[in-house]
Amino acid sequence: MAMGHIKAKAVNRQSPKRGDRREARRAQLVAAARIAFLAKGFAATTIEDIFRLTETSPATLYAHFTSKFALFEAVVQDEAQRIWNRLLTVLPAETCIPVPLGSFIATVINIVADEEMIGFLRLVIAEYRRYPSIEAIFHKTGPRVQLLISRHFQHCEELVGLSPECAAVTAGIFVSSIANVQLALLTGFAKPDELATLSERLTREIRAIIDFGNAPYMQGGQK
Q: Label partner for 214 (CA 20 to 30 A): which of 21, 47, 193, 198?
C-alpha cells in the first residue's frame, strides 16, 4: 500500500462520533500506525511517519504512547479486537443458528483469511519473537475465537446427525484447517483471489470427514 494514499484513510477510519478528545486522538494515532506498519513494516516505520499521517506533534504522540513499540502493541490489541468483532457480527455469542456447511466455512474464511488479515499476520510474525507481549495478545484472543467458531460449526446442518463427540472433533479439524489456509496465503502457495476455491475445497474435505463419522462402525455398529 503506497504511503501517499494512507493519510486520508487514517483520518477517515477514526472520525469519532462521541467520546472525549483524548480517546479520539489516541484512536487516530492507532489507526494511522496500523496503516503505516502494514505499508512499510514495523522496523521501517518511523515515529515521523505517524506524525505526518496524523498531523500531530511528538508531544501529543508521547502523551499517549511511550515508544513506537507501545504503539505497535496497541495496534495489535486493536486488530485482535477488530477480528473478534467481525466474527461476532456473523456468529453471535448467544445464539447458534443452523446454516449450510459451505456457507459457514466461506463466511469464516472470508474474515480470518482476507488480504488485510494476512498482511497483519505477516507483520506480527516478523516481530513476535522480539516482543513476547505481541504473542501473548494472540494467545489470549485465539482460544476464544476458536471456541466461538467451534460452537457455531457444530450447529451446521450437515453435522446434525453426528454424535456430540464427533461434531466436536470435526470442529477442531476445521479450526486447524483455518491455520493451514492462512499459512498457504502467507507463504504464497495460495493467492488472495483463491479464497472461494479454498473454501470449497475445505468444505469437501469436512464433508468427507462427516461421512466417515456417520459410517455404521463409527456409530457403534459392526464393521
A: 198
Nearest to 109 by CA among 128, 86, 127, 125: 86
Q: Residues 145-170: what's their mean pLDDT?
A: 84
Whether residue 102 has pLDDT greater than 80: yes
Name the residue type at position 151: R
**Model-wide pTM > 0.85:** no
Confidence of residue 191 (pLDDT cuts 50, 70, 90): very high
- Residue 76 vs residues 31, 32, 35, 69, 104: alpha-carbon distances, Å: 11, 13, 12, 10, 26
